[in-house]
Amino acid sequence: MSKTIKQLSEELDVSKTAIRKRFTDEFRAKYVQTTENGMILISENGCKLIAETMQTSATQFPQPTENPVSSEDQPLLTLLKEQLTIKDEQLNRKDMQISELQNQISELTAAIKTQAENIQTQQALTTGTIQLKLEQKKEDSNNQESSNKKKHWWQRKNNK
């Protein structure tokens, strides 16, 4: 019985493209028919032939079950494993160094913040002291002016 490409692909569990790749001009002439509505039908013998080619192509390239390492490659493989171990140790040391540096940066940042706060406090105190002195001078000068205004000119000379 004839089958479509889709039916055969589902039966063999392969893609429709994989089946179409098996179509040669000779295969088309012998085993393929096209219906009036454009459907491609593969004869029973053609289906068997495609099924056989699918099985042989699957067995031609078996999946490797074990790691094929020749005796010549064994020393190289051992050397590479040793180098990987050394690199892993180096990376671990670098990670620890980075962690320590990050901790130092955190500590220094905290110390800088504290110093900045201390400087701001000192500036505020200094500013407050200067303002107090200026206010006292203003009060003194205001007091002196007010005392000078109340006295007559002959009285002002005696006070100085």
Assembly of the depicted chains: single chain
Could you say which overall geometry the principal axes of the C-alpha atoms support? elongated
End-to-end CA span? 137 Å
When the domains are counted, the total is 2
Mind telling me the C-alpha Rg?
A: 49 Å
Q: How large a portion of the residues is in β-strands, by DSSP E?
A: 5-15%
Number of helices: 6
How many individual β-strands? 3
Structural summary, described in words:
The chain has 160 residues and is mainly alpha-helical. The chain has two domains: 3-59, Multidrug-efflux Transporter Regulator, Chain: A, Domain 2, CATH 1.10.1660; 90-147. The protein contains six helices and three strands, in the order E-H-H-H-E-E-H-H-H. The protein has helices spanning 5-12, 16-20, 25-31, 44-60, 74-150, 153-159; strands at residues 3-4, 32-34, 40-42. The protein has a three-stranded antiparallel beta sheet. The longest helix has 77 residues, at 74-150. The model has no long low-confidence stretch (mean pLDDT 84).
